[in-house]
Amino acid sequence: MNRLAAGAMSGDPPASLAALHAQAFPMLDRAMIDRAAPYGEEISVAAGSVLFSSGDRVAAFHIVLEGYVEVLECEADGAMHSLLVHRDGEFTGSLDLFTDRPNAVTVRAVSASRLLRVGRAALERLILTEGALAEIVLRAFILRRIGYLRQRPFGGAILRSAARAGSEDPVLDLAVIGGGPAGLAAAAYAASEGLQTLLVGGSLSCGDAPGADVLSGFPGTITGLCDGGLLRRAEDQSSRFGSHVLPVCTASGFDSTCYPYRVWLDDGRMIETRSLIVATGMQEGAAGQASAQANTAWLDGCLDTDELGYIHTGRAAAGSMQARAYESSQPGVFAVGAVRAGSVKHVLASIAEGAAAVRVVHRFLDASAH
User: Fold this and answer.
1) pTM for the full model?
2) Of residues 84 and 143, which shows the higher confidence score?
């Protein structure tokens, strides 16, 4: 059987995308599968069995041990469209496994298959314990989300930027500051949902949250993201639908007195944005210390924070009238991950917050447009 199901893509991916494709759809070797085995159970399913359906909120991570598993998407007319087929050693799943979002796709067995099924809670334990495997899985999940619109660049997306009469709007829908777990998840969801998004990846110091270190240079460490890694690959994909990545820049200043808001970067450039997600984590070298301070000096006191610089959000934010989840004392400015006061300082919690905050950004942008 062809690696990709009929209709998903024509032929093999172009050479320029082959490496990216391999990162998004890796094949686990026997040693990696053996590392995952204690976290799940081996199951056998008949051809045509549905593993989970679009719209479900309960799902699991499946590694294909033998057979073929198909990923399908429901079209507007109700017809099911085949996106791809996973074969031996490959795995199902996306960032949705760590959020409260319903499944975007349906997954079913094409043939009689043997699978390793890992439930959501067990997958979280695996991610926090098995560093090498966690790096492969999380990189694939994020790249799959970023690449979602490659196969259907208009269907189902909000595409605010495309609605602006075909002209490039110099004002962003969203700027995400911080390239760790929370920031990268937020940017991936925002871009895949049609927001004109900029991810400034360099503002995050090493160690966004306890647990990030197990990822061995993946989300949470500036080295793994910027030194030839994920953000550069993400840039190739995200720029196709109105998103851009500045992996080595940092934010140096913020002006909350005007709207759209202005953010200055350390290379002297200034960007204007209708909304902002702050995901800059804790100051370098402070992770694990009782007095660890948030990396928010660049905000220059514009937001309500606690004594260590962590940003208050929702009802805890001084002067907040809307009390939106993740929203700071400044309307349209949100905080997620370790930088947010009261957050769970944990890499998977940071991913969930980054994804969830994008929904609130949509509501803010919709309201401000009217």
Assistant:
1) 0.76
2) 84
